[in-house]
Amino acid sequence: MTLAGGENFEILTLRAGRWTIEATATSLESARTEAVRMQNRPEVHGVRVIKESKKAIDKLGPEDFLFEKLKARNEGKVFVQTILDAPLCEELDDLFVLPGRLTINQLMRSYLDKHDITATELMHSAKEMKRLLDEGTLINSATAKVATIHAKKTGDDTNARRDLIYDFIRDMNARAKAAADRKLPRLRDGGFQAVFERVTATADPADGEYLMRVVIANELIDTRNYFGKLAMLLQWAGESETDESDRVLDVFISDTLCNADVLRELLGHHRDLASALVALICFASGEPPDEERPENLDPEHPRFVIFELSRLIAEGRLPDSRTILFDRVKRQLEGLNPLSRGDREEEREVFMGLLDKLIPDIELVGGPPMAEAVTTRQSMIINKGGQKGLKEAAASMLPSLSDPARKTGYLLALLDCELGQTLLREDIDEHLESLLVTPPTINHIVRDKIPPNMKMRKLTSIFHRIDQSTLPDEQKEKLKTRLDDLLASYIVDGKILDKLDNPDRPLHIRARMLVSMVQPEMLPNGRASSLARAIIVKHLRRPNFESEMVADIPDPAEKAKVLRQFHEQLHRCGFFG
What we know:
By secondary structure, the chain is mainly alpha-helical.
């Protein structure tokens, strides 16, 4: 039955002991249906349907529940998740690095969440390994899925790949058992950095990092709560003093971030998926929280985890964790859930807002996998599926990006993902040709009304990005030569060097402005920069040039400073070899 009056209904889910708004519906019937569907998810322990209300969730009473269904924690079935890809593993250590762990976290999500352990804890604890192996069918199912994917990639027999994975599991179990028999120190008995140095100094170099992961796993297993684990890890990170100890902690921190409840706790409530993803992108990019960080942040502070995690990501100390967060954004974009609660037009608008965050300039946040994800989402927005839909999606993305650097960055990132290397390879070449080769002038590429130096910087950034790309060398040279020619024409036609070298200006200002023209970010090495270099060299060869350059500066100290800065500029631009 649909209630009259245009009422909305909210669907609440219970995860890790906390109720949150999961979705909305326009009728009670559709809300009940969706709630029952959500109840089947292993991580959901209860569902409720209420009328849209201004009441806080924790203030709701039985009279507010139009539908409610709860299940005991052990009612949820443990199963192996479906995965579409898995990196090839040729040795045991491949399972411990990020691609391997990410696959295990996805494949075994149901099992890990039931037992409140991370993938790395599982692989380093003999006790947890035994519990998993005792379940039998679960590990068999997981192994079969991965072996099938690997066999398709390599052309090997599926049974051979499965046997190889079983060998890894056997060796992993034996290694965990051997570590359990050692008298390893406990973190609670000493500071993190002291224990790290003790373990790595006394162990064989090949085993030091592994054993430290065992030490951390032994400590974390006692905490059967992901957010509690994360808080402990961040406290240890505050004691970490080296890149090596940071790297070990990053392994565990990134694992905790694979749990959906941890992310919800970090990000808080958002009105729709798009706003949640924007918050996640900001977090993964190291942007600080909106509120000011307390001067003496204590682990007991309710926002300790958020402030510390944000700080460590911003400092570049948690690269795996950053990758995990962007992978979450990618998978949500590739999923079927709508970005907004509104109509198709609102969906387009919020997607444009996401693109502003993901492609702020020439570098695409999240790299090639994100390029494929935004293309997939665009195909949903234009409502066209299949190969034709993906081709149209890539083409329709470009006008949305408007800026040539953003367009180029998107195309070159797309080039490095599977979709770009196969289905869209020719399309990418055509788009690059249309974007950078066909236009007759810079002004036809950079249409914004910005100063000449900004236009040249923009084209130069495109030049350098192409130079670093995986395009074939012949295509690189063609595009780079065209950009260099356009820059040279722009300089000549606009009399830019004449304006900079205006005799009415003091010589030291003219010299500084001319040298700034040949800095790497302004002009690439080539025809364009040679024009400016020729004028600079002409000045440098003048007798007493340096004396003339600072003649109008009365202060000797200032003269010396100007000359020093000028020499630094020249050196940076390669004038001294």
